[in-house]
Amino acid sequence: MATSNSKYNAIVVVDSASAETESLPYTPLLTAEQQEQDTVPGAVDYKHRPAIRSKHGRWISASFFIWVEMAERMAYFGISGNLISYLTGELGQPTAMAASNINAWSGVSKLLPILGAVIADSFMGKYYTIVASSCIYILGLGLMALSAMLSSLSCLNNSQIIIFFVGLYLVAIGQGGHKPCLQAFGADQFDEEDPTERKAKSSFFNWWYFGVCLGGLLGIGVLSYVQDNLSWALGFGIPCILLVIALVILLLGTMTYRYPVKLEGESPFTRIGRVFVAAANNWNAKLPVDGDGDGDAKPHDGSVQLTFLNKALIAPDTVKRCVKACSKSEVEEAKAVLKLFPTWATNLVFAIVYSQTTTFFLKQGITLDRSITSNFAIPAAAMMSFSGICIIVFLPIYDRVLVPIARKSTGKPAGISMLQRIGIGQFISIIAMVIAAVIEKRRLETASEHGLMDLPNVTIPMSIWWLLPQYALMGISEAFTMVGLQEYFYDQVPNELRSVGLSLYLSILGLGGLLSSFLVSLINKVTRFRGGGESWFSNNLNHAHLDYFYWLLAALSVLQLAFFVYFAKSYIYNKNKASS
Fold it and tell me: Where in the cell is it found (predicted)?
């Protein structure tokens, strides 16, 4: 039996004997020579013809996405990195109000990728979601530039503020669709069933993060200078132009991309939801001896785990006929999603640690001697670039030197497994927190020795380069854990949910930032009460105890790593993910 797939102009052929579904792009009869060409299973070109391995996908297509991401990150960090200066300066907002507005916008920006991923995976597809979100992104940046231009020509009024914030939240909406889909679509350009392309896909995630960090460095360094020394209108206008260029680059590669074929049938969210409902309804039922249900296709391995979901395989009794039994492939799909959450939860402390690089690390640096020459000092905002520079230097070394060495030893295409990579990064972050605590203790001792404890605005005679080890180690830990998490949440979800998978990775950072804010607020209240008015985060940093906070984060990270290793040891990778 055949049914039409209008979205991809495909024919869905159902073999009644095996009850398996295969999606084949509708195409004229191929010549013998064309039949010999190496087509990519499950992928079509922009005209819905079978994707040819030599013409579509691989690095020639993936490079478009890396350039687009570099431009987008430069634009995003060019806006977010100096946003508090614009709100408190040009818009005249109090510091507390400006911080509240930034936190609200940042939170929305981190949550919207989940919605964007659901829309892409269920309705529009990755390519069209990226194009549509890019247009929204450009519109938002354009409104921000217009607002800054109007405020420079006349006195500030409410309409200009409204235009600015409408533009700012349009940027958040645009990023929500852009961020998870672009990376997932870029990784789709490699066929995981091909050994050579499987290695290239792992390398893609390294170079992707390289592009993210390089774009962020340029955004913070170049655009913050333009905004502070030239004009805010130009500082917001350049990101708008960058996003237009990024969209043009994306469209230029259209004919080279591989487009995943979407099968007709239920939404994966519907299937997964039905499994949980069926398992709940059969909670008291006993499983058959084999507990395996039917013998249809198995997209994922791991039936020995999360066996309570196997109860969804049991045919319902007469009372609950409204809930039908699920197939084994549906149960395994639900298990694949549920298995992600221990890894998700055991990286939240890492996200808390990660957020310190842009907050308390920066506060430490401001108190230290930042002078390079008698006439030049390192700008405070530039200190945030230390970690990014370390990542940019380290990732090519990792990809070109360390991975081939590890590959010879382990036989794995990526050298080490994804969970091993994440765990190594967590371990390095613990070392970074220990060093940060030791350096902060040294900073406090230096301030005390020179009688500066009550002079918070006086520079402590201690070089800012003392902070380089903690910045460098956090950068290296990012290169391991962040890239590992991106690859893991892309690779281990069902194929139809890969944008959602990457949005889950982004949600770790979002929730980690919120948890960091909550933890700081809680510790601030507790320690102020016990310390007679002085907390660990006193406004006078010379009276504060960031060293205690760093020791606490190191201890929490050790506890997190122990749980992570426990879950990782029992984790069963998807059956066809040989890289792991």
Answer: Membrane
What are the CA-CA distances from residue 468 to residues 46, 364, 384, 430 (Å)? Answer: 48, 12, 11, 16
- If residue 5 lies in a helix (H) or strand (E), which one and from where to where? strand 2-5
**What does the pLDDT look like over 356-390, one tens digit per residue?**
887 788 778 888 888 888 787 776 667 777 888 88
C-beta of residue 78 within 8 angstroms of C-beta of residue 235: yes
Query: Quick check: helix, strand or coil at residue 393?
Result: helix
Identity of residue 343: T
Predicted pLDDT of residue 14: 37
Residue 278: closest CA among 293, 290, 297: 293
Torsion of CA 234, 219, 62, 49, to 10 degrees: -30
Per the listing, tokens 């402590």 go with 460
Residues 542 and 444 sit within 8 Å (Cβ to Cβ): yes
Pair 478, 391: CB distance under 8 Å: yes
Give me the residue label for tokens 């990809």: 399
Strands (E), 224-334: 259-260
Strands of 10-15's sheet in order across = 2-5, 10-15, 20-25
Centre a 10 Å sphere on the Cβ of residue 397 and count the other Cβ atoms it contains: 11
CB 356 within 8 A of CB 371: no
* 44 belongs to a structural domain: no
Q: Are 394 and 476 spatial neighbours (Cβ–Cβ below 8 Å)?
A: yes
- How many structural domains does the chain have? 4
Give the three-state DSSP class for 454.
coil
Residue in 544, 560, 518, 341 with CA at minimum distance from that of residue 430: 560
Q: Are residues 570 and 435 in the same domain?
A: yes
Nearest to 178 by CA among 91, 255, 99, 119: 119
H or E stretch at 368? strand 368-369
Where would I find the H helices in 287-384? 328-338, 340-345, 348-355, 360-367
pLDDT of residue 12: 38
Classify residue 41: in a domain, yes or no: no
Whole-number Cα distances in Å, 442 to 70, 462, 543: 38, 9, 13
Q: Which residue type sits at 270? A: T
8 A C-beta contact, residue 69 and residue 182: yes
Q: Is the pLDDT of residue 456 over 60?
A: yes
Q: Residue 442 belongs to what domain range? A: 339-580
Task: Confirm if 386 and 468 have CB atoms less than 8 A apart.
Answer: yes
Place of tokens 């634009």: 75
Whole-number Cα distances in Å, 193 to 42, 189, 197: 11, 12, 8
φ/ψ of 460, rounded to 5, equals -80, 135
Q: Counting every residue, how long is the chain?
A: 580
The residue type of 541 is: L
Q: Which residue stretches of 56-122 are H helix?
A: 58-80, 83-89, 95-119
Residues facing 260 on adjacent strands? 43
Helices (H), 154-223: 158-187, 195-218
Paired tokens of 477: 């830990």
- What does the CA dihedral 70, 71, 72, 73 come to, rounded to 10 degrees? 50
Each residue of 218-268: pLDDT tens digit? 888 788 788 878 888 999 999 999 999 999 999 999 999 999 887 666 677
In a domain, 82, yes or no: yes
Instruction: Give the domain CATH number at 549.
Output: 1.20.1250.20
Shared domain check, 187 and 96: yes
